[in-house]
Amino acid sequence: MEQEFSSKLLENAVSELARLPGVGRKTALRLALHLLRQDTDVAVGLGRAIIDLREGITYCRVCHNISETEICPVCANPARDKSKVCVVETVKDVMSFENTRQFDGVYHVLGGLISPIDGIGPDSLEIDSLIERVSNGGIKEVILALSPTMEGDTTNFYIYRKLMGHDVVVTQLSRGVSVGNEIDYTDEVTLGRSLVNRVPFAK
């Protein structure tokens, strides 16, 4: 049964909050009522932070990680080994690998995985820009650090085929990450070890 609201403003707030992933209308109502009980500064601060996030964040033109500048801090860091590129699915995966403190190279964010069922093909992802980075020279190793799922393996193999003929070593995470698990749900110790103990890509 659809919830009835005595206030149109409250209904609008609940409707907007309920659009967030994992937030149903009951949770959205609880959040909205919580904000009403707080000082006005709390709601204003939250709103301002969201607006600043949306207007201030862009994507690195090199690796497609989120950034407040044209080139993200990782790519701009002279201490990072630019000859090693770790290919990941999402920005959250970059954060996961950075938290392990086991990688001194740079990243390339695909923005998803090949999934024909979901209508996601290679052209929908940042694969061509990866191949272009490799073609420009300076990259010695491409680490395929995608989740060991059917979609991840399909994307790994597609990228491997696209890299054939280039003078670059292609490796992948060791199977310390359980088959079927997503990178986002793997603990930092296991993730770090799987990266350090990476192996040549197996077709």
Overview of the molecule:
With 203 residues, the chain is of the alpha/beta class. It has two domains: 44 residues, RecR Domain 1 (Helicase, Ruva Protein, domain 3), CATH 1.10.8; 120 residues, Dna Topoisomerase Vi A Subunit, Chain: A, domain 2. Helices cover 42% and strands 11% of the residues. The strands form two sheets. Strands 4-3-5-6-7 form a five-stranded mixed sheet. Helix 1 crosses helix 2 and helix 5 crosses helix 8. It is elongated and about 65 Å long. The N and C termini lie far apart (52 Å).
Q: What's the short story on this structure?
A:
With 203 residues, the chain is of the alpha/beta class. Helix content is 42%, strand content 11%.
Summarize the SSE layout with pairings.
Elements: H1 8-17, H2 25-37, H3 40-56, E1 58-59, E2 66-67, H4 73-76, E3 84-88, H5 91-100, E4 106-109, H6 127-135, E5 141-144, H7 150-163, E6 169-172, H8 188-196, E7 199-200
Parallel strand pairs: 3-4, 3-5, 5-6
Antiparallel strand pairs: 1-2, 6-7
Helix pairs in contact: 1-2, 5-8
**What gyration radius follows from the Cα positions, in whole Å?**
21 Å
Terminal CA distance reads: 52 Å
CATH architecture of the largest domain: 3-Layer(aba) Sandwich
Q: What would you call the structural class?
A: alpha/beta
Count the E strands: 7
Shape: elongated
Fill in the keyword field for this structure.
single chain; 203 residues; Dna Topoisomerase Vi A Subunit, Chain: A, domain 2; 5-stranded mixed sheet; two-stranded antiparallel sheet; 8 helices; 42% helix
